[in-house]
Amino acid sequence: MGMIRGDDYRESLRRVKPEIYYMGEKVDSVADHPAFIPHINAVALTYDMAWAPEFEELLTTKSHLTGEKINFFTHIHHSTDDLVRKVKALRAMGQQTGSCFARCVSHDALNAIYSVTYDMDQKNGTEYHKRFVNFLKEVQKEDRFMSGAMTDPKGDRSLSPSQQADPDQYVHVVDRQKDGIVIRGAKAHITGAVNAIGHIVMPTSSLKEADADYAVCCYVPVDAPGLVHIFGRQTNDDRKCSGCLMDQGNPEYGIVGGEALIVFDDVFVPWEQVFMCGEYDFAFELVERFATAHRQNYGGCKVGLADVLTGATFALAEVQGTANASHVRDKLVEMVHLAESLYCCSIACSCQGYALPAGNFMADPLLANVTKLNVTRYVYEIARVAQDIVGGLLATMPSELDWGNSKIGKYVDKYLKGVSDVPAEERMRLIRLIEGMTCGTALVESMHGAGSPQAQRIMIMRRSNWARKKRLAQKLARIGEQPKLV
Amino acid sequence: MKVAFTYCGSCNPEIELSDIGHEIEKALQEAPDIEVVSRRSKAIDIMVILCGCPRACGDKKRVRKRASHCIVVAGETVDLVPVAEKELATQVIQKVKSFSSPES
Asked: Nearest CB to A364: which of B55, B74, B81?
């Protein structure tokens, strides 16, 4: 098979029976619940766009394992061209959804685990890589959508996993059996968790020997016994269930990817789905490679979103009669400048990517972290400029229900109108779209998704060659030895 | 055994590439049965490709074609295997010598 369509994905969700809770109630069918449909639509588009001739070049490729045509989101990168293509694919996707489409997380997890299992086997003589390759073949064949579950709740951040008062603050192995392991704990704010077919579980930080039970990487089907999903609230999420469409802003694809808390209440995992179990000395490598791949993405997908936001802001400026004001034009240029700067970062870290011992490629870690750190700033600035141009109506606009009301709708129409030849409805739709993209959850995703800013700073600190920078300066300042070239 | 050296260009090395290169070259010049030659020589047995970071910009097909064997230093790796910076020169020297006396 190798490539499915969006409707195949929707049907696959109806075949699994995960335990999901939202607003205190158990969800019967995630594929048919209004709270989740936008997120499902966004993921479904990653399948359907791959079949569209205009996106085929970006979103399909050949499996290096089977030679079959596959969706790019299950591909293992084998060149810097592949890394660049990922960024371009993410931008193209972001432009179509205006929201997170969640598929990149498992893509990055697959790439990271592919290389780390190889390295573990080289050092320890284990057979994780072979096992993982078999799993990857299945994933590619089924074109399976999975979450990448890395972040643990972490409890007391000043303590390591094994030092926690509650040992379940990090996912850990509680039993090793002949045919598999049992894991307990939780993973927090996992994108796409409720509309995935399964979860790729990874450790969340570097680990020491005492934390060996926390060094666990495995695949868990979404309906495995003991697995509980608790879906998180989003800004204005009740609009999805209120029958309003315009007030949702982006009713087709929503905002962000749909995050959930996943509880692993003694979940059994067969050995064939275990890709790390106790190798604490490889936890950091896995975290770094996954984080690098994921941080590389943000100057792709978020720039696609910024393209939509800039377009919405420009269109709104025209509707409001401000598009020709020099300061508005200047601000629109600023939005583009910021967005394209992020794109430059993602392209750069991809071009500077390199081969790993397993033969697959990863982006330059330093530049990938710079990319994501810039995203934590620039996306906010882009949103700030958009809000500046929109005006206060962003926070005070009446509901579409008032606009549709037979008695007062005429007032909404009359007083929300901008230029005379454009109906108020158009202005309202643009403002709601901008509201969804700039107010609340969507922005927080840019701050903390793929790791909080401090995580990027730590990696930048680690990856910067401080000694050489100092030596370069000392040479020119004529301090100490005077080599001709440093 | 003729050994040549080529560099990636040293745009922003993560290791002290010049020092490491000079250390390897000096050690090999003193080794018996090894002759250090220019990278433009026609007959090269081993090309040591010295790159400052894992990007390995010096590792090109046209460079590889010039020698029977290649050893690639790319940041803190030798032929993709992680090696600490202080061990890089020793590792490369050992590898070169292993080519010149394969039974070892």
From this structure: B55
Residue A324, in any domain of the structure: yes
Give the model confidence (pLDDT) of A316-340 as tens digits.
999 999 999 999 999 999 999 999 9
Model ipTM over 0.90: no
| pLDDT above 90: percentage of residues in chain B | 92
> How many Å apart are CA A454 and CA A448, to the nearest integer?
10
> Within 10 Å of residue A133's Cβ, how many Cβ atoms?
15
Q: Do B13 and A468 touch (CB under 8 A)?
A: yes
The domain that holds A406 is classified in CATH as 1.20.140.10
What percent of chain A shows pLDDT beyond 90? 97
Helix (H, G, I), strand (E, B) or coil at A334: helix
The neighbour count for residue A463, using CB atoms within 10 Å, is 17
A79: Cβ–Cβ under 8 A, 6 or more apart, which residues? A361
| A267-292 mean pLDDT | 98
What single-letter DSSP state applies at residue A229? E
Any chain B CB within 8 A of the CB of A472? no
Distances, alpha carbon A335 to alpha carbons A316, A329, A384, A391, in Å: 14, 10, 9, 16
CA distance A347 to A264: 37
3-class secondary-structure state, position A224:
coil
Give pTM, 2 decimals. 0.95
Contact pairs from chain A to chain B, CB under 8 Å: 24
